[in-house]
User: Fold these one by one.
Assistant:
Number 1:
Amino acid sequence: MSDWISSDTSRYCAMGTVEQTQSSRGTSLAVLAINTKGGYGELINSSPFDTNGIMVCLNPYNVGNRCLVDIAIGPIGSEQVIVNNLHIDNVINDQISVSFCFPVAIPGQTRIAARMQSSSASAKLAIAGHLLSSGFADVSPLGKVTTYGVDMSDSGGTQIDPGAIAGVKGAWAQIVSNTTSPITKLAIVIGGDTNSIRANSSWLLDIGIGSSGSETVLINNLPLVFHENYIFPKIIGPMSVSIPTATRIAVRAQSTNVDATDRLFDIALYGVS
Amino acid sequence: MSWFAIVEESTGRLISTGSVIAPVLPLGIIAIPISGPPDPDQMWNAQTQQFVARPPKVLIDRLDDIRARSGIIATLQAITPDQRQIIMDTFIWLLGNRRFRVQGMDPNL
């Protein structure tokens, strides 16, 4: 008797792709005003099955800007945001594409849409993705994604300053004073790419929990590099963690770059529960 | 919500910023009230133990790198101002968004 692999019943459904155009990319989102959410663009009008995961690919493509993207479900005019403020930057005259994957459940026959805000009123971003459904033996999906550390006033994340001494951890920067839900999976999103003119650099990033002055390192030395125009990786995780409600989360880093501006990057955290 | 800078008293080194501080700080660590989350345009000064303006970024123009190459100035001076302008405009077009660099970046593209 052959093994019954849990992924035997895996299903995938693309959404937001615009195959009929020459762009060969996702649905375009735009904004009307700086740092203000624009209208929703529909990714799929009815999901074909119950999902236990969603993957979205964000591709800002026209001007250097910071973007925050919401994923929502529901009919036109009454959308409910299920993942808010996915953070991505890009560089002038360049483009990047980053995939975010979250193990969240969405019922079948659900309309899914997205909207964004940006630090540039002329920003454009293409979004596409997949609905994921895996076998019955797979891990149960989670229900909620909570975003921490984004700055709605500039469509960016929380700035991390590694300090002026190369190779020495800088100060902890508070991302959230009290988490509002327990976190079982944590995704870390890195920004700061609107500063594309800097020497090749590398960083080591710590995620910590606890009060200011008595932080405990939860995840240490996550590596980042800047090469050519971008800091990589753009997203780390989601990785399994166990962070209770009402926890303070902070981040610190060390860098090879000690320039007062070029050593900086920003960060947003996405807690799945 | 009150914000604090957590600082090593003897050196002025910034250890943390936040709105939730430990009930008891380690010996030699002090909490200095600050107005709110650190302004992205400011950085910590360990000597004065306060946030100060971040110095402006210094960019180097790759046109200056070109001008610094041996013989290029003499070559440009040997042609008319209009021809010189055409060449410089072509360099600017060719460099595009790589026209500027910072100290430590290779001038070569």
Number 2:
Amino acid sequence: MAAATRPVRRRRRVRIPVARILLLGFFVAFVLVPLYWMFNTSIKPSDDYLAIPPVWWPSEPTLVHYEAALFAYRGLDGLINSVIVSTAATVLSALLGTLMAYSLARYNTGGQHLSFWVLSQRFLPPIAIVLPVFLIYRGIGIYDTHLGLILAYTVFTLPVSVWMMYAYFRGMPRSLEEAAMVDGCTRWRAFWTVAVPLAAPGIVAAAVFAFIACWTEFFFALLLTSRNAFTLPTVFRAFIGFQGAQYGEAAALAIVSLGPSIVLGVLAQRHLVRGLTLGAVRG
Amino acid sequence: MADVKIRGLHKRYGAFEAVRGIDLEIPDGEFTVLVGPSGCGKSTLLRTIAGLEDVSEGEIEIGGEIVNDMRPRDRDVAMVFQDYALYPHMTVAKNIGFGLKARKLPPAEIEARVQTAAAMLGITGLLGRYPRQISGGQRQRVAIGRAIVRSPRIFLFDEPLSNLDAQLRDEMRGEIKRLHRDISTTMIYVTHDQIEAMTLADRIVLMRDGLIEQQGAPLDLFERPATTFVAGFLGSPKMTFLPGRLSRNGTAASILVDGGLRLDLPAGRALGGAEGRSVIVGVRPEHIYRAADAAGPGEARLDAAIELLQPTGSRTYATFRIGGIPVTAELEAHDAGRPGDIVPLGINLNRVSLFDADTQRAI
């Protein structure tokens, strides 16, 4: 018996999972090559952009594109505006979304239909409302202000935040809050001391989604801002002009704009995975 | 310490009525068990006492004070939940002390009271752990600790043992009984398990379809069930119900059970009603025994063909048929014979229950 099985085993041990390595290799290349090329372009002298054969690493790396993108094209102002607007909208969206989702989950607020109506707001094509919003903003004087954009982004990210949190709270046993209330808490305090800490992974996940949505939003930022509150994505349109495309500046600003998302992703990764399972993980 | 009085309590959820008019008085210090099948309204009743459900109609009074509109936190009751409801993000010590902290006691006193409660339940070694790091039985102890640490006026238990395995359940049952003996606070305990109800209760309140079917001391309910429902719910194996007809012979009354068995009722169990009245005879397994030589007074005899034997060690449950209805007898382990044997059995007619066939109520 042992003699018969040994050769089989030996052959199995040296087999290389070729298909798996190839597949994973393709995937890694698919994800990383564009990022590499973007970084490469951002530090290339302008002459090398479209050189043939391609320049895989510039002989004289330069930071001039970063300087131009951040200062001449006001990328830094856009970055600061983006941070302000995205952070404020994310905090508001997470806060309001949590409260609203709790209300829907525990009090069945609005019956069966309100929760779905909330989500239905996402069905509306943004272009259908952007002109009225533009006119209203002009009328009440919040056009091209942080406040205007924060309000708009909060409204747009709220449905998804609410739905993520709604699922989370529904998966959480009621008896935890009931125990807290019998133990001496008001409903409000039971919510803050028991429900919210337990929902933290869901809140973090919802907040990350909201932040990314705000950070990359272009359309509303373009139409609702001008010279003051413009955000990072709107800066990019300046790189395509009558002189041709400014590849280096575009790549440099793209690299800069990746920063916060990567930091956020790394910080929230553990919560994000748990949050995406939407309350399935307990205790 | 407080008594509980419930008057005309109704609880409706839309068109569905979970509790349909309950009047109940629970004296101070009593251990009351609300028992009944799923959906009988026992948990709803408990939750209205806790204040977790609003009352649709009627009054709840705790310690002489009507609490209908009082928030749960102001009722000074403690509750142990079926799923323990321990806060997963807090240590055992924080869980137990949570209610004291919510009531803003000084930290030193919280610490002292948590230690006392933990020592009482033998969980001092677990205080630093999180709920996910301890076993089901330990979680239940923590949940009980969280209740006793507050010294509430009333303890409410909502099926606290149903998530535990059989052995642990027996053990915890004993501990809850001991706890009640030691602190003698009013306890209201919901279960669907009739053994828990029998062993724990000073008084059993047996519910059915949102109403109280019968209440009283455990042995009263067991020995003198008011209805066939109560008789069938309490006791394991279940009481057997044999339909029959009343037959009169002068002053003596007997019952002809469908299938031919004749039960001559002893003088103390005389029945009213006309000849031919439909009755149901309720026989518990322990009312049947291996017969000795001659039939005594108040005893019925039959020769039973044993179909099935279920030995439990000390006793053996033997199943046979009377008029096609399977009857279980609890026999001495070595008296039961073997399946297929014909065994002479006696039925103690002084102890069987008699019900009216139309109303299903005891006669």
